[in-house]
Amino acid sequence: MGTRFVILCVDDEENPLVLRKFLLQRAGYDVITARSAQEALEIASKQDVDLVLSDHLMPGITGTELARLLKSQYPKMLVVLLSGVNEIPVGAEVADVFLSKVEGPESLCQQIAAVLAGSARA
Amino acid sequence: MSVHEPVNILMVDDQPGKLLSYEAILNPLRENLLKANSGREALEHLLKSEIAVVLMDVSMPDMDGFQLADMIREHPRFQKTAIIFISAVHLTDVDRLKGYERGAVDYISVPVVPELLRAKVSVFAELYRKNQQLEKLNRELEQRVTERTEELRESESQFRSLANSIPQLAWMANPDGSVFWYNQRWYDYTGTTIDQVQGKGWTRTVHPEHSGRVVAGMQRCWELGVPWEDTFPLRDQQGNYRWFLSRALPIRDAAGNVVRWFGTNTDITERKQAEEALVKSERLAAMGRLAGIIAHEINNPLEAISNAFYLLRDHPSLDEEARYYARLASEEVARISHITKQTLSFYRESRQPIAVSLSEILDNVIELQSRALKLNAISVTKKYTTVGIIQGFPVELKQVFLNIIGNAVQAMGTGGRLRIRLFQSTERRSGREGIRVLIDDTGSGIRREDARRIFEPFFSTKEAKGTGLGLWISKGIIQKYEGSIRFRSMRLGQGHITCFSVFLPAAAAAQVPVAVASSVA
Fold it and tell me: How far apart, in Å, do the first and last CA atoms of chain A sit?
């Protein structure tokens, strides 16, 4: 139980982003936010991030594209994609998990915990 | 007719000198002059050749002119033959009458005036020639009529065999639209007789909801002489209706007048059904797309709201009442999430189809339902004669059987029997090999009025409990596998038996694991 996990939350919409941040903070994580994939890449290049939780559908670089870029630069970085769309986008398998937004807050926290735990074991 | 064809003129006199003088007088007429010295000789000529005019002396030794005329007239062939009597004695009116009674035509008295004789013979010869020509024309005309009639009969019979061989119903009508002929297919289909359907009688075979429009439209076309076309149901002999595309064309004579109408009725029931099915499936696809778009638009704020209430409901700054409200809101929002999730099945599956064991999937679904099965006191019997391997995507297949079995379990709230069978099968309709799953329950059954709508989206008999999307989604998934899903529900004693049958062809595997609601751009 050393340092807390750092999660970088990415979403182009402010309200969902802020609420997700509070949710994850309540769950015990350090949370940084970014309003675009571009901003997320900049943050990831400057500080340590354990997991990126990104919306898929964003203007400019999509979440899936962001996941691909992050994984190519930081192979050990965990990426969780979140989407309201009903189809898994092409290329989404580069992310560790692809989640539906309608699963609810508890499920989201569980999944993130599971991904972090899985990586810790590995 | 200007051609001068010489006719035979028979001259009868016992005195050769007179015959010679007649010959001299008549020669310029350029006819064939035949001479007879006696009545007997005259008759021989008559029997041998066609005679146009007989010129005869009334007084001859063995047989006088009148006697000869009598004999000539007795023969039917000579009843109309012109006879000119030449008489040396003064002819009384009595003699004239006697002559006419015998059908004689004219008299010439002696001394013979050559111009007069020539003129009279010429007139009769000409008359004869004209008659001959007329008769010849008549005969030719008759021949042509006979030939034409034969041709017509032949073309009529060709027409009829053609009209009976086409797949359409066909008919012919008078210019006023009264039908006088139908092909055999019409009678075979409608089961009517000509007496029932001739004239306007056919209107009884038109669906009552359409007949007013059809008759009015047809009437307009008859009056305007323009082609007619309409689509309406016609009753068959069992009283069922099928849709026909009906057309009629005016047949005109050389002057452009409509002499008859030729009409056909083409069965388009299957085409119409296919079109309707297409329209319906397009509508469903459009709804699917719309549902997808809406769900996506809803899911984004929904997540934020869910998170907000989640954070709020245990927030230390709120009192018990405020937290209670937040909890209620949280629960209600969860219901919305459930609906959008149902609408928009979210698959986390591989993109390649894999070998899926249907028996495993069925066992899995039964396992998922085990609590409800126990609670509702439902007994389960399974009969698998195959493992049931097909290429596909397990999650969506599981969803299909979860929907069907879930419905069955809910229909047996007060207990019952659930039977699940899995076997290899050949689809009777297509002859394809595949796997069939039969799921039957003894639940509340499916009402006849619901049966038709059961696979439609947003149709639910469970009122508040159901989204009405389960079977619609299931059908979409099965169709993706080129399979079929059907059901039957029947009364059995006090209860019902409802059986769902799913056929999945062995060959066809769905290529892409998409949700039924199609893609969102």
Answer: 17
B439 within 8 A of B401, measured Cβ to Cβ: yes
- CATH number for the domain harbouring residue A112: 3.40.50.2300
CA distance A80 to A108: 10
- Residues A79, A102: contact at Cβ < 8 Å? no
**Contacts with B371 (C-beta within 8 Å, 6 or more apart), sequence order:** none
Give a yes or no: residue A59 inside a domain. yes
- Whether A1 maps to a domain, the answer reads no
Instruction: Chain B: give the shortest CA distance to residue A59, in Å.
Output: 13
pTM to 2 decimal places: 0.44
Enumerate chain B positions whose Cβ falls within 8 A of a Cβ in A.
292, 295-304, 306-308, 310-311, 334, 337-338, 340-341, 344-349, 351, 514-515, 517, 519-520
Tokens of B392: 């596909």
Is residue A103 assigned to a domain? yes
Cβ–Cβ of A19/B295 closer than 8 Å? no
| R_g of chain A computed on alpha carbons | 13
Alpha carbons B510 and A119: distance in angstroms, whole number = 34
Determine the distance in angstroms separating the CA of B520 from the nearest CA of chain A, rounded to an integer.
7
At residue B149 the predicted structure's pLDDT band, cuts being 50, 70 and 90, is confident
- Residue B199's pLDDT band, with cuts at 50, 70 and 90, is confident
Rounded to the nearest angstrom, the gap between the alpha carbon of residue B244 and the centroid of all alpha carbons in its chain is 7
Q: Which structural domain range is residue A105 located in?
A: 6-121
For chain A, the domain total comes to 1
3-state SS, one letter per residue, for B261-278: EEEEEEECHHHHHHHHHH
Helix (H) or strand (E) holding A8: strand A6-10
**ipTM reported for the complex surpasses 0.90:** no
Q: What is the pLDDT of residues B86-124, one digit of tens each?
A: 877 666 655 665 655 655 578 888 788 889 889 989 888
What integer is the mean pLDDT of B166-181?
Answer: 90
Which of A36, A17, A15 shows the shortest CA–CA distance to A25?
Answer: A17
Distance of CA B395 to the CA centre of its chain: 49
* A100 vs B contacts (CB less than 8 Å): 299, 341, 346
Q: Which two tokens stand for residue B96?
A: 């004239």
3-state secondary structure of B99: helix
